[in-house]
Design goal:
The complex is a heterodimer. By secondary structure, chain A is an all-alpha fold. Chain A is about 65% helix and about 0% strand. In chain A, helix 2 packs parallel to helix 4 and helix 5 runs antiparallel to helix 6. Helix content of chain B is about 35%, strand content about 10%. Classes of the chains: A mainly alpha, B alpha/beta.
């Protein structure tokens, strides 16, 4: 009797799980971005092969946002689980789907799919071409390169032209004569991607002529610059007509990524302009940008002197203080440690970065504060302290072997006191 | 007698001052664009010139985008090249001259593209082909320039002076594009078994001889194999200096970033270190640059230098005491120095067995010897008057002084490990550690020796004061002494190749080693007589140097000098 009951429970559970999966796949078609996104996360986390079959059944009918998620799910699974679905999708109506399927099979070693892929790439309407390009990573094939080159047409929007050129750069491992012909044709056609073509041709013999026109276009403001910046090679010196545009863009950086990306470009172009431009960012309203500017300046000769950093340490701005202390620590100067110790003990939004910064010091002075932070009220503080403590102890005791999990401490555990007592006991024995 | 010695030293100092230096011929920058622009776009438009590009078509040069850069430079300088004939030679070919000098520049660009598309991976004797190229240029009209592009093969020397003479005779200026050498590179000196092209010797240092000690006990890789020199290999600097040419160094952008160490672990950062001495001070680097004089003249200049003599004597004594793995390979004479076969140093046999007590005693004796040699060297250095030697020799002697103290620290740590740590790992009285520390699990094996790695000195010595190291009773005082010497050295030489070299050394960390499981080795030769014919020239093995890329080309000066 019990066995029958158990069998019924198992059947019901399996059915419920299968139903839940079907619902999740259905939710990929939702017009609500939040629902779609949650369904996608749940399906990605579920590694059961049934997910592949369910997604494969529904994929061709999904609207574009859900279709993108569905493709990512399939692309993230082992090819043995997805090969049948991909093979079926080779006959899909949409060229985008056919291209994604052929690309997946080609990556899996089915060289014969090259021709199908090239045809699908060529057949995709302009609106789908960006998605097609996104499906083509790690494919080095002449027929594919030729088909991709076909996207360099006058009516292609600027982002598509930039993506196509970026893609060709990777595919051809540099620049080919065929792409140069296509880019020059694009320039002659005076299409929407004209400034991308001008940027690409900055490497050629007539760079100066193109630089002048590009500089005029970019003078309107940095918005256009951010669309073509991936076509610029870090460390390469471009015609001086472009210097002002590059410097302006660095000064208008929107995120630490922009700073890191533009720094080598401006450094090669006009080394004397880098430091003054980054210094302007030190007073930016965005704290992340300010911190990134400090870090960038620290790596430049004459960028930040110790006295500048000491002044920042004394400023009444925790972001600046932490950035300065970190840079000083990176320069083998531990004078910012007391400031970081104080910030790591205070509650507030700066406690997590302060605890993270503290772990960088690899000094005995930080251990007590890190141990105290293991019992902080906020989980992110506890997580940072736990990771930091492990780094610090491994550095201070290179001859000891640790298995930290044996202490029983878990940042999200309910009862942390006993584990912290174990850790303190070790520290008291070796301090 | 002392006066005569002083006069001799002063005479040698004057002699050394008259010799050409690598600093005088090395141009700033690390790109391909600038040298090509400078060479192709040099001279006036109306000047008649012949430029023969001699290509060492290695994968490194191909990967650097040389073909594209050359095509760009030809296009960019078209106006300047109107009266210039371009030619192309490829090193290693039976007939090195591929395109005789011609006014059809596009023909050269095309031939160069095709030559670089099939890169060579062998050691090549570039000097022999330079002589052939010089002969080919001899009858050409106008100014004659040999533009040598070689990132890999400057170290396979046959006869550098004969090559300089050939260039001189043909009135050819040699402009060199190459990679940066490592400081007093000891790589090939430590690998004398390496096959090389017939008639060549594998060298590679920036100077004519290895003038910085290498092979210190408990350093896993000599700093000489990982320290950018700031200059090219001696042979190439010599060609430029001997023909009124220049040297342009190249480095890929990926190489220009700081790494605390290529071979050691860093206890103090996660790769975000900004060492205060990372950006070099150019005048100091130039001052510490090598000579670009004939090897014999260099030996004469070095042999007369009091710092060099003190350094060589101590180096030899350190090798005899087992503190250094190799003797200098140079013998001092009354008036100079002579090259001699490199002899290995004494083997203290500290790591090949698990006799920890015996190891500890030997290490303590060796540590005492290191201290004694260090003090003797210091006394000698203190007696040398200001301005009596070459700055490079002075830096090298002081480097040896600090390295002897570092070796002493490592020997004391080793003895401490043998006495304090090793018995606890295997003995019956092994202490059960407090969690989260755990006992290592050796799987019931008994140790057969001692292994080690290095904890880098990139952050200096001071941070080690907080680190728990074996040798508790004597180590703190010795670390403090090392810290003082390290700091003094860095104040004087920190922002240069010598500061970088010191930071590439490390404090040793030890562990027990266990018997390995050996498989059956393949036969060296097949039984039958049908042995496949090996390559005529040996393949160049990949080399891990100071370059972050770990390629076989040279490293890169800190801060992208």
């Amino acid at each position: 009797m019990n066995a029958v009951r158990l069998a019924i429970v198992v059947v019901l559970t399996v059915t419920a799980t299968a139903q839940k999966r079907e619902d999740l796949v259905e939710q990929l078609a939702s017009t609500d971005a939040g629902i779609r996104s949650r369904a996608y996360s749940a399906l990605q986390a579920d590694r059961d092969p049934e997910v592949v079959a369910l997604v494969g059944k529904r994929i061709a009918e999904l609207p574009d946002p859900g279709l993108r998620f569905a493709l990512w799910i399939l692309q993230g699974r082992p090819i043995d689980d997805t090969r049948a679905v991909w093979t079926k999708l080779l006959g899909a109506e949409r060229a985008w789907l056919r291209a994604a399927a052929a690309a997946a099979l080609l990556r899996a070693g089915e060289r014969v799919r090259s021709g199908v892929l090239a045809k699908a790439i060529a057949a995709a309407p302009i609106g789908d071409r960006q998605d097609v390009l996104n499906a083509l990573w790690s494919i080095e094939d002449t027929a594919v390169a030729d088909a991709v080159r076909g996207y360099l047409v006058a009516d292609a929007p600027l982002p598509l032209v930039v993506s196509t050129l970026d893609h060709l750069q990777q595919l051809e491992k540099g620049r080919s004569a065929a792409t140069e012909v296509a880019v020059r044709a694009l320039l002659a056609a005076d299409g929407k991607g004209r400034i991308a073509a001008l940027t690409w041709l900055l490497h050629g013999a007539d760079a100066k002529v193109h630089a002048k026109e590009l500089a005029t276009a970019l003078a309107a403001g940095p918005a256009l610059f951010w669309q073509i910046e991936t076509l610029l090679a870090p460390g390469r010196k471009y015609p001086e007509e472009l210097t002002e545009a590059f410097v302006q863009a660095l000064g208008s950086s929107r995120s630490p990524y922009d700073i890191n990306r533009l720094l080598p470009i401006v450094r090669a172009q006009a080394p004397d302009r880098v430091v003054p431009t980054l210094r302007q960012l030190l007073t930016h309203t965005n704290a992340q940008l300010r911190a990134a500017a400090v870090q960038a300046l620290a790596g430049l000769p004459g960028g930040l002197e110790a006295k500048d950093l000491q002044a920042m340490l004394r400023a009444d701005d925790p972001e600046q203080q932490l950035a300065a202390a970190t840079v000083l620590r990176r320069m083998d100067d531990p004078s910012g440690l007391p400031v970081v110790l104080a910030l790591a003990q205070k509650s507030g939004t700066h406690r997590v970065p302060a605890v993270q910064a503290l772990a960088g010091f690899r000094s005995r002075e930080v251990v007590d504060t890190l141990l105290a932070a293991l019992d902080a009220a906020e989980l992110p503080v506890r997580t940072a302290a736990w990771s930091g403590l492990q780094q610090v102890w491994r550095g201070l005791f290179p001859y000891r072997r640790f298995e930290f999990e044996r202490s029983g401490y878990q940042p999200n555990g309910a009862d942390r006191a006993a584990a912290i007592a174990v850790l303190r006991s070790f520290w008291n024995g070796v301090r | 007698m002392k006066q005569i010695a002083t006069l001799a030293i002063l005479g040698t100092a004057t002699f050394a001052q008259d010799l050409p230096t690598a600093a005088a011929v090395t141009e700033p920058g690390r790109t391909l664009t600038r040298p090509l622009d400078v060479v192709l776009g040099g001279g006036s438009k109306d000047q008649e010139r012949t430029i023969l590009v001699l290509l060492d078509a290695s994968a490194t040069l191909a990967g650097a985008g040389f073909a594209e850069a050359f095509a760009g430079a030809v296009a960019q300088n078209r106006a300047h090249l109107q009266k210039t004939r371009l030619g192309l030679g490829v090193i290693g070919r039976k007939e090195p001259i591929v395109v005789a000098p011609t006014g059809s520049h596009d023909e050269v660009v095309t031939a160069l593209r095709s030559a670089i598309a099939t890169p060579a991976g062998e050691f090549l004797n570039i000097y022999a082909d330079i002589r052939t190229a010089a002969a080919a240029l001899a009858g050409q009209p106008g100014e004659r320039i040999l533009l040598l592009a070689t990132l890999d093969n400057g170290d396979a020397e046959d006869d550098v002076e004969q090559t300089v003479t050939a260039l001189h005779k043909a009135k050819v200026r040699c402009e060199v594009i190459t990679s940066e050498a490592t400081l007093a590179d000891s790589y090939w000196a430590a690998r004398s078994w390496q096959e090389k092209p017939r008639g060549t010797t594998l060298t590679g240092p920036d100077n004519a001889v290895i003038d910085v000690p290498w092979g210190f006990l408990f350093q896993i890789v000599p700093a000489n194999e990982a320290t950018p020199a700031g200059f090219a290999m001696w042979g190439l600097s010599r060609l430029a200096a001997g023909s009124s040419g220049r040297v342009f160094l190249f480095a890929s952008t990926t190489q220009i970033r700081h790494q605390c160490s290529t071979h050691a672990a860093c206890l103090f950062c996660s790769g975000d270190h900004l060492p205060p001495d990372d950006v070099w001070y150019d005048p100091l680097v130039d001052q510490l640059g090598p000579l670009a004089a004939p090897r014999d003249d260099t030996l004469k200049a070095l042999g007369g230098d009091p710092y060099f003599r003190a350094m060589i004597d101590t180096w030899r004594a350190a090798a005899e005491a087992g503190l250094v793995s190799s003797a200098p390979g140079l013998r001092l004479t009354q008036t100079g120095a002579e090259i001699e076969r490199i002899r290995p140093g004494r083997d203290l046999d500290l790591t090949d067995s698990a006799s920890f007590d015996r190891h500890a005693k030997r290490a303590e004796e060796a540590a005492a010897k290191a201290s004694q040699l260090g003090q003797q060297l210091q006394e000698k250095l203190d007696r040398i008057g200001k301005g009596q030697g070459l700055p490079r020799c002075e830096a090298s002697a002081h480097y040896l002084r600090v390295l002897l103290q570092l070796t002493r620290v490592n020997l004391i740590t080793f003895a401490g490990w043998c006495r304090e740590v090793a018995p606890g790992l295997f003995g019956k009285d092994a202490v059960v550690p407090v969690v989260p520390e755990v006992s290592p699990d050796w799987g019931g094996q008994r140790p057969v020796g001692v292994g080690f790695t290095n904890l880098g000195l990139c952050h200096g010595v001071r941070p080690y004061f907080a680190v728990e190291l074996p040798g508790k009773t004597t180590l703190p005082a010795e670390l403090a002494l090392l810290d003082a010497q390290y700091a003094a050295f860095m104040i004087r030489w920190g922002k240069s190749q010598f500061g970088y070299a010191l930071r590439r050394n490390g404090i040793a960390q030890f562990w027990p080693t266990f018997p390995g499981v050996a498989g059956k080795l393949p036969r060296q030769r097949p039984k039958s007589g049908s042995d496949p014919q090996g390559p005529v020239t040996p393949k160049r093995p990949p080399r891990e140097g100071g370059a972050s890329t770990g390629g076989s080309s040279g490293p890169t000066t800190g801060g992208g000098r």
